[in-house]
């Protein structure tokens, strides 16, 4: 008699114990039926193990086919069907930018993810994987950003300005994800100054108001929606540093604040409103400053290869008693030379400020142009007059390799480009030439200075998330306070290696 598997033998003993007649005279037909049933179960388990180990699927037999038809193995069939389903492709908001992450999807894209379960999936996108649960409900993606800079200044009449420095513009780790089509979240910390700094950290909810309009609401530590370059992430700006409009016409708290923001999105426009307090800190002994901000953009012309951008923004802040110092010293020759700045001189006793600005630009084919202007009015205590600061910039760029500018029509800002022929695939990557003129004026104050800078640059995108940048800046300043007074000019050359996941 052939050997009986252990599990089959145990079943046989149970059958013998339960049936005295069989214990005495088990028939060959009954034992054969029992062995056949156990063989079918073993074949089913082997098929499941082969799928888990990634081996070739076993050849179906009559026993396995019969077993697979039973309700107990129907889930296995469903898993096999899900694993063979094609990966879900998220359509970006514009073909020239990389697809959005889980926290940046619109509700239609998020619903498509939830409605297309394909088993537990791991999809490699822009540098890091996107994980999706088997039912499509849970989505998760790690985030990272490494921007390494070097800067050298020469030509200044002040020796203290002619320096060569290195620094990390950004060194971030974080995550983003979603639960179902509506709930999403994002969190990032920055370590670039050799200390932990919480940057983006929020929870959000998205939905539709109609067939053409959707919205999202997010609460937490929020990045400003203010100005074109001010709303563009540091990993997506066409220059190593944002223009003076974004760095000078800004709330006293800076680029981030804790609060709530609501955004509306149409086919060719968006609008946002936010109410925020201070940045994340450990100071709860006094009131936070309060900032109300709004921004809107519109694309009155929008074709496959051209677009016109019109934007406006503004903010109003009531300053905390602990934040009434409005002294400002703004970089004009790159971020990593702290000596090349335009200064207001000492300015104390601020009560509130109001800022506003306009944006006008667009692209035609591979050429883009963007102009920005902004003004900030600071109201001071006592009988002192208001202080107004002004800034404007004009920027342009051209992709020699034929890419469209990485404009995001959903947000009215730049994103990461979709490189047509990455270097890692044997292509040239994407090569962009850039130029900018920017101006800053603090001369409403008795000790306020002014300055301007002209920049020429080249960006080489090896692929959609890796790039090299080189900027040459000619700058001029005229300060009436501080260590470097009077007229001065010089040149700064800066370079960056950047990777964004």
TrEMBL record:
Residues 60-75 have a biased composition (Low complexity). Keywords: Coiled coil, Signal. Pfam families: Porin_O_P (PF07396). SUPFAM superfamilies: Porins (SSF56935). It comes from the Bacteria. The keyword Coiled coil applies. This is Phosphate selective porin. It comes from Sphingobium lactosutens DS20.
